[in-house]
Amino acid sequence: xxxxxxxxxxxxxxxxxxxxxxxxxxxxxxxxxxxxxxxxxxxxxxxxxxxxxxxxxxxxxxxxxxxxxxxxxxxxxxxxxxxxxxxxxxxxxxxxxxxxxxxxxxxxxxxxxxxxxxxxxxxxxxxxxxxxxxxxxxxxxxxxxxxxxxxxxxxxxxxxxxxxxxxxxxxxxxxxxxxxxxxxxxxxxxxxxxxxxxxxxxxxxxxxxxxxxxxxxxxxxxxxxxxxxxxxxxxxxxxxxxxxxxxxxxxxxxxxxxxxxxxxxxxxxxxxxxxxxxxxxxxxxxxxxxxxxxxxxxxxxxxxxxxxxxxxxxxxxxxxx
Length: 321
Hints:
Pfam families: Chorismate_bind. It contains eight helices and 17 strands.
C-alpha cells in the first residue's frame, strides 16, 4: 500500500515537472516527498556538492559503543551458513552503534563535508546523513548508478593497489555490479558498465578511506519523468546495501540483523524539473529518545574474515569534519 502511494506521488510530481525532494526508507514503509518550494526549515539537503566547511571550535570527539565482536561473529557465521547452502552469495550486514559526541545533529550537518547531505526532522524521525554514494542519476534520458563496494584505510602502504588486487573485494564488487546491471535492465535498455572499479578518497574524520565504485548506465524513454515512481520502486532497495540474489538476501538479513534499518540505507534525492540525482543513505546518525545511534555495515562473501569485517563496521562510524 505504502509502495503504491510512493509510486503514485513520484509519478505525479514527475509528470508535472515539479521540483521536489524525496526521502524513502529502506523497505519503503516510510517516505517523505515534498515540493522544494514548500520544504520546512527542519529539512535541509545538499546534493553532489563539495562545499568548503567552517572549522569547529570544539574538540573533535566521538565515543563508540558497538556490538561486541562475539555478537557480530554470531551473525557473521549465520550468513556464512546461508552462503554455503547456496541461498546467497553476497549479504550486506549492518548494525547500529550507540555513540556519544558533544556535537548536535545540526552542528554535524553544518560542518560535515560530503557529496550528499541530508538533515531531516519531523515528529517521528530525527536524523542526518552524509553519504559518499550516489544511487541513480538521470540526465538526457540516461540513467546511471554508482555502486560503492570496497573500503581500505588510505594510510596503508600501496592501499589503492591492495584494494584493487584483493580477490574478495573484486568478487564482492563484481557481484554488485552484475546485480545492478540486471536492475537497470528492468527499467531501461542498452545497459553498459562505463567505468569498472575506480577509486575515490573519502574523509573519515581522523583518517581517510579509499572507496571503490563503478558506473553503470542505461537508456530511458523520452517520457521517463512521468514514470519516476515506477523506475525508483522497481530497483529499490539498492543492491549495494542488500546483496544477491536480492529478494532472498533481504529475507535473510531481516532475520539476522535484529533491528530496524528504517531510513538508513534508503535513498534521498531531488528532481529539479529536468534531471534527477539521488544517493544511498549510508553514513547515518539518528536520534531516538535523546540517544544517538550510528548505523553502518559492509558486504559479506564466502571469502570474508569476521575480524576484518567487524573492523570495517567500526571504521565506517566517523564524523567527516
